[in-house]
Description:
Layout: H1 9-15, H2 26-35, E1 41-44, E2 49-52, H3 55-64, H4 72-83, H5 92-106, H6 109-137, E3 141-142, H7 143-160, H8 175-192, H9 196-205, H10 208-234, H11 242-247, H12 254-268, H13 270-283, H14 287-301, H15 310-313, H16 317-329, E4 336-339, E5 344-345, E6 351-352, E7 357-360, H17 362-365, H18 369-372, E8 385-386, E9 389-390, H19 411-428, E10 429-433, E11 443-444, E12 450-451, E13 456-461
Parallel strand pairs: 2-7
Antiparallel strand pairs: 1-2, 3-13, 4-7, 5-6, 8-9, 10-13, 11-12
Helix pairs in contact: 4-8, 6-7, 6-19, 7-12, 7-13, 8-10, 9-10, 10-12, 12-13, 13-16, 13-19, 14-16
The structure holds protoporphyrin IX containing FE.
Cofactor: heme
Subcellular location: Membrane
GO molecular function: heme binding; iron ion binding; monooxygenase activity; oxidoreductase activity, acting on paired donors, with incorporation or reduction of molecular oxygen
Amino acid sequence: MRVWYCNCEICQTYIQSSWTLQFPNLCDWYTHLLQNSPTQTIHFHVLNNTITANPDNVEYILKTRFDNYPKGKPFSAILGDFLGRGIFNVDGDLWRFQRKMANLELGHVAIRAYGFDVVSHEIHRRLIPLMESVSQKNEVIDLQDVFRRLSFDTVCRFSFGLDPKCLELSKPLSKFTISFDLASKISAERAMAASPLIWKIKRLLNIGSEKKLRQAIQNVDILAEEVIKQRRKFGFSDKKDLLSRFMTSNISDEIFLRDIVISFLLAGRDTVASALTSFFWLVARHPDVEAAILNEADTIIGAKNGLTGYEQTRELHYLHAAIHESMRLYPPVQFDSKFCLNDDVLPDGSFVKKGTRVTYHPYAMGRMEEIWGSDCLDFKPERWIKDGVFYNENPFKYPVFQAGVRVCLGREMAIVEVKSVAISLLRRFRVELAVPRDASARFSPGLTATYRDGLRVLIRNKPRPN
Ligand code: HEM
């Protein structure tokens, strides 16, 4: 049951924010609590939130009793202003329709080859020239910012057939990008508030963070409408992009189309940028892993060649493992919540009352000895390799792409993108951290993991042909 005040240690630590004295991030404190819970599940009374890192519970919520754990109305209310009726924010028929349409597009094998081409174009036309010029100037660059621009261009070309050309650092960040980040941040903060009343009153009075959110959403709406207008102008009858597919499916509601655009931007932009940032954050600290990635690339691709296509990316097992390993420790979506429809008992015996928010926590799960063994905090791609090939873990132990009925539809596409960027950069450049190697990762609040200070690095040319 939700209580407005609670004296227990966990609730008091939350209310007083005293966890900040010991932990760099809220997710680190949650991890500590989950590691010390005998069931790997905890309950926050003041948030009416059950949080679990127990794979049996995760399977139960995401698959076995999927119907009892929808996104639910409270979640839709928190994200409704930003995401509207987009796929991330709805259940039932509205969700089924969007999933079916997106699956037609993203589930197609040919689309992965198309995804590879889109990413390759961005890498060769923009990313490599940019890095060449940065390396000559010997200046510090924020790789997270570069990856956010790159993944924005890529998702727009891939999903909407349009190219916003964001990866030109001479351009200031667009009003849209800043507004999109702000809307994501303030929406996530709503979910962390001890009482929804606070943000609801602020929204009613249009003050403080809620005023900023409203303005940010207006800016985001302008871009989304522009995307739809452009797509209509250029025609979409023979186009294979996702937006054209939705626009030719009898949707006459412009606001619904806008919601679809925003959801796919969120799906493909921040997650991929976050995955890439964490990958380079870790690889720059582990030269042995970088050497193994390059060694494999030389063997599969040839020392003097570039990647030939999507099929070849599939042969890079060690790189595949390194990417999965970096997302195990730094998942782009650190936690994800559902709402319990009817009273229930989770497999670990935890009672869940109707209306409780139930969260599974991939960030904590990557740090559980029960799941990954005593070396769970180490970055070891080898744990994903068996007999020389990549070995897929049980998705409920590793719900980085969610799992079960609503599993991510863009997983393949995301991995192709991260692999292509990783190989292209690591073979041509040395990425040197411009921060102390032992600095701990600090994240900003948001729907996807964002490094608070970015990823500041120096880029050096490598004496290699490619
Ligand atoms: C490393 C990159 C990615 C990660 C870690 C990731 C992770 C996730 C997660 C955790 C969810 C569940 C979210 C929720 O229920 O609120 C999800 C859903 C989804 N993802 Fe991804 N994603 C990634 C990239 C992508 C890309 C590139 C696309 C599309 C181009 C995509 C499309 C989707 C869609 C459509 C859903 C909604 C599925 C549904 O609700 O039925 N994702 N993803």
